[in-house]
Input
Amino acid sequence: MKRFSLYLMLLALVACGNKKDEVKPNELVDVASQGNVKTLWKRQFKASDKAFGYKLIPAEKNGNVFVATQFGKVFSLNAKTGVTNWQQDLATEISAGPGVGDTVLVVGGPEGQVVAMDIDTGSVIWQVSVSSEVLSPPVIDRNKVVVRTQDGRIYGFSIQNGHRDWSFDTNIPNLTLRGNSTPVAKGGRVYIGFDNGKVAALNIMDGAVLWQQNVINSQGKTEIDRIADIDGDIAVVATDLYIASAADKTMSVATESGRPLWSQNIGSVTGVTVSRRSLYLTDNQSVVHQLNRADGSRGWTQDQLLNRQLTKPSFYLGDLVVGDLAGYVHFLDGITGDIINRVRVGSDKFYHSPLVVGDVIFTYSHDGTLSALRFSK
Output
């Protein structure tokens, strides 16, 4: 049976339904602004078109920012000034990336294209094809390029020549949300959350399965009720792995075994962010939550941005920053969750949560606006 995107089904239901039942985002209200938001620079690229589920996420390496457009162009920019170092036109659609390493950067496409480029010049080093579209940035670690595809497969390629060294496959449901979580590489392992609610740890060198656990059990009567996608960012800190599922569940599991440590009945399709003591996430109604990292106990919540399709929160110098569907960036106090400032940097939703590098925030929206910001209280 062909799998369908739940997003497309929901669009059809909304189109056929009564307008009074449509979910509307909260209107923004004025906030007593604290501090100052400074725009350091902006770049304007071509706006995206029908790019739902794409993760064109800026990446930073050695003082440069790398960014890709849906229409095949990849740029290296000076992170301080936004000035172009180089640009490359791959003449193929890009849906994910770039993933960056010390010497290469890699992007993926909706037809299964995977392209590796020299990080200093932008020249193409190798190109391969995988089994289906790539919707999360490739991950580079220990001379391996790890690529995840929408059909539930994971590939490990040689960073030098693109030779496929290993692959891993898992069964996924007929009906899933559109999108994939990005694998996390740490300590010679790759951790991946899947659309069937399972999490796996693989050896990055040969793809051997170290463990695989079904950590999200959804027992609904219909396929929609049983959706358990782990599509958002996962996080690894020491011996703990943190995940969130669309099935109203956020969990901590042991990295050595996948054994659940704690769980909370809060779901998220955008994933989790962790600090030294807390875990932060945006739930499926755009309510932002703080949890205690050690035991999952609840802290503050922020619901003034309800249904504004918020990104995952990014941790910024003790506070949080999130983007919304209309190009606004909101700053939240890390201790109380209060909204303390906001700025509009574009006119459309963001590909991903803001990228924080030191005291600089990079945002990239579907209208093609790439911004570098700094916030000071």
Summary: Residues 133 and 368 are 22 Å apart (CA to CA). The chain has one helix and 35 strands. The first helix runs from residue 6 to 16.
